[in-house]
Amino acid sequence: MLANKPPYLGFGLGLRPQHYEEILSGNPAVDWFEVISENYMIPGGQPLRILDQIRERYPVVMHGVSLSIASTAPLDTDYLGALKTIADRVEPKWISDHLCWTGVHGVNLHDLLPIPYTEEALDHVVDRVGQVQDFLGRRLTLENVSSYVTFGQSEMTEWEFVSEVAKRADCWLLFDVNNVYVSAFNHGFSTDDFLHGVPRDRVVQFHVAGHSHEESHIIDTHDHPVCPEVWDFYRETATHFGPVSTMIERDDNIPPLAELVEELDHARQIAREVRESAQRTAAE
Amino acid sequence: MTSLKELQESFQAGILAGDDTILGEVKDSAREQRTVLFGVYRNAYVARLAEILGNDYEQVHAYLGDAGFAKLVKAYIAANPSDQRNARWFGRCFPEFAHATMPFADHREVGEIAALEKALSDAFDGPDAQPLAIADLATLPAEDWPRLTFRPHPTAIRLTFDTNATTIWSALKSETDPPKPQRLPEPQALLVWRQAFMARFRPIGAEEAMMWDEAVKGVRFGVLCEMVATFAGEDEAELRAATYLKGWIDSGLLAGCQVEDNPA
């Protein structure tokens, strides 16, 4: 067991402005919230006030989209400073971002771009994660992204790369169930290989989300309800890892809060069945 | 082997400039060709930035319609690759761009509607500050008033429009037909700021605008009264100045004041 592993939080949702009022006026059955770090890198006003109010009532984790940990551009110290400022305010249970890059030469493409799985990239990412963790004074949590292309120069599988980053940089992992499903379909690998290929003791969070199927490939749009195939893979994932903080991630076509809570209840139900099944097996 | 740095530069050029060099580095999948798969990144870049601008400039979109807005957005994205980690600031130059880009430059109201939307967004999440209250001034001795200077609320933004953009914006916001665009006989000054967590704006007259512009430079209240007297006549000049000041305080437009020392 790794030291200082973040706590198990239960079942959470991504905090979206459309739901601010409902969350604060009601008492939705949500155990914790994940906030997009960049949305609160602003001078002041209502969003930060609401963030403070949410923080008073719920555990919060921070999730960034622009760290660009794998970029060959220098680390952006202004961005890291802003990230640390928000973290000091929120005191999140952990801070996550994506195992990807978002631009070079001062450009940000606002997308989660794929990495070639090479020793060179591995050394580069491990070094950068170390620098960021030193700056933040805490371990980082990194998420596997959905990707649409693979590189001819890759020397290892994605799960080998992810695992090596986690072990060598000593960081946590956010296992995005949907992203594994999407990338497995796009690149023709087995979801099980990925699932069994990453170190269990490093995984602190799951994302479960919907996507758009384009027949020859799947795009990770986060604008649909979770599909049956991803729920099936979530069941396998929950069985393999045991209790891990789980979150429904919806970024577009945001439905009423109740719909997301319903999806979250479905995740709860699956996790309960998995736990009961494990208990029965243990008892036999 | 292409270095990671070169690979990323090539990937970025593939997205930003349509350069196909990167296609030599990526593979076809079992089901799809690499051009289609890399195209996902090309399409997503433009679509995401267009979505950001659409959210930030809803009424410009409503005014121009889908086709006109798409044209302006496409031109902005091509001319302004994002240099921001936070998408919130990607569209910050959109009003100026609309003013400078044909055919929108010929329709000045477009850039002004954009400027109003940008100011409202900036006020909405601008810096926090406790507004100045009337009670803060209640105990001030009468002889100190002429030496009083004021600090604007950090969210306060002063704009001047040449067109009826605010009327068009208001109509679009309430989803009614906007009036025809027109040049105003005199420029219209307005103030944009945040009060009680809401971004708001208010058109102001030329005299109030003059006094505001001088007040935020740190000009003393006594001098402001003299300027108001010069602007539109001495009759009740102090009352007019005091009325503007009270309006600013009541609206949360000021964040502080102080009594300056007499000049040595």
Describe, in plain words, how this protein is organized in 3D:
The complex is a heterodimer of chains A (284) and B (264). Chain A has 284 residues and is an alpha/beta fold. Helices cover 43% and strands 15% of the residues of chain A. Chain A contains nine helices and ten strands. Chain A has an eight-stranded parallel beta barrel, surrounded by five helices. A two-stranded antiparallel sheet of chain A has the order 8-9. In chain A, helix 5 (158-169) runs parallel beside helix 7 (191-197) and helix 8 crosses helix 9. Chain A is globular, with a radius of gyration of 18 Å. In chain A, 48% of the residues are buried. The model of chain A has no long low-confidence stretch (mean pLDDT 95). Chain B is an alpha+beta fold and 264 residues long. Chain B has two domains: 1-106, no CATH class; 119-264, Outer Surface Protein A, domain 3. Chain B has ten helices and five strands; from the N terminus they run H-H-H-H-H-H-E-E-H-E-E-H-H-H-E. In chain B, the strands form two sheets. Chain B has a three-stranded antiparallel β-sheet with strand order 2-3-4, sandwiched between helices. A two-stranded antiparallel ribbon of chain B has the order 1-5. In chain B, helix 4 (94-100) packs antiparallel against helix 5 (108-124). The longest helix of chain B is centred in the first third of the chain and has 23 residues, at 34-56. Chain B is elongated, with a radius of gyration of 25 Å. Chain B starts with a helix and ends in a 5-residue tail after the last strand. The mean pLDDT of chain B is 95. The chains are: A alpha/beta (284), B alpha+beta (264). At the A-B interface, helix 2 and helix 4 of A face helix 1 and helix 2 of B.
CATH-derived topology of the largest domain in chain B: Outer Surface Protein A, domain 3
Whole-number radius of gyration of chain A? 18 Å
Outline of chain A, from the CA principal axes? Answer: globular
Shape of chain B: elongated
> In percent, how much strand structure appears in the residues of chain A?
5-15%
What is the rounded distance between the termini of chain B? 74 Å
Point out poorly predicted stretches of chain B: none
Major sheet of chain B: size, sense and barrel closure? 3 strands, antiparallel
The CATH class of the largest domain in chain B: Alpha Beta
Which oligomeric state applies? heterodimer
Structural class of chain B: alpha+beta
| Count of beta strands of chain A | 10
User: Number of DSSP helices of chain B?
Assistant: 10
Mean pLDDT of chain A: 95
